[in-house]
Amino acid sequence: MKANNFFEMNNEELVKKINELKAELFNLRFKHATNQLSNPMVLVTCKRDIARAKTVLRQRELGLSVEPEKAAKKTRAKKKA
């Protein structure tokens, strides 16, 4: 899940999503331990999603910027004649 999706959620939805992701990670760990998980990278992506959601939640608590800043458009310098 992209970080932009987390920015669009309110705090209650974020907490709910974090709890869902933690439950999913719990189940994935059991599947991995019993060799039923075909792609172990799912564990990594689930952990990263939890971290992204917690980061957005913490940014809101601290009152930091909520939206990612867009990069400024670069312009070329004028050539001297």
Overview of the structural elements:
The protein is mainly alpha-helical and 81 residues long. 63% of the residues lie in helices and 0% in strands. It has a single domain, classed as Orthogonal Bundle (Helix Hairpins), CATH 1.10.287. The chain has helices at 3-8, 11-33, 41-62. The termini are far apart. The model has no long low-confidence stretch (mean pLDDT 87). InterPro entries: Ribosomal_protein_uL29, Ribosomal_uL29, Ribosomal_uL29_sf.
Helix coverage percent: 55-70%
* Alpha carbon gap, first and last residue: 51 Å
Mean pLDDT: 87
What profile does the largest beta sheet have?
none
Relevant terms:
Helix Hairpins, mainly alpha, 81 residues, elongated
SSE blueprint:
Layout: H1 3-8, H2 11-33, H3 41-62
GO cellular component, one term: cytosolic large ribosomal subunit
GO molecular function: structural constituent of ribosome
Keywords: Coiled coil, Ribonucleoprotein, Ribosomal protein
